[in-house]
Write a sequence for this structure.
């Protein structure tokens, strides 16, 4: 299975702004890492997978995520 198929599967499974149920779980930060890798690999993540992008947009608005990104000198790369 290629990475594009994996991103498509994530997109298909998402029903809200969290990966599992209606609240933040450990899955959400992992999906952030994969999203960043997709951008780095040249995928047009925002255009190709809008529900996945919405999850990431929601995640990077959290104060703890903002603080972690700043502490690690990492941009959100949306």
């Amino acid at each position: 299975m290629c990475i594009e198929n994996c991103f498509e599967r994530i997109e298909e499974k998402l029903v809200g702004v969290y990966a599992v149920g209606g609240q933040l779980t450990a899955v959400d930060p992992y999906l952030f890492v994969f999203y960043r890798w997709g951008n780095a690999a040249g995928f047009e993540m925002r255009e190709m997978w809008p529900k996945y992008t919405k999850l990431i947009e929601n995640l990077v608005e959290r104060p703890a995520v903002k603080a972690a990104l700043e502490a690690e000198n990492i941009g959100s790369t949306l």
The chain has a mean pLDDT of 92. The longest helix spans residues 27-40. The chain has five helices and no strands.
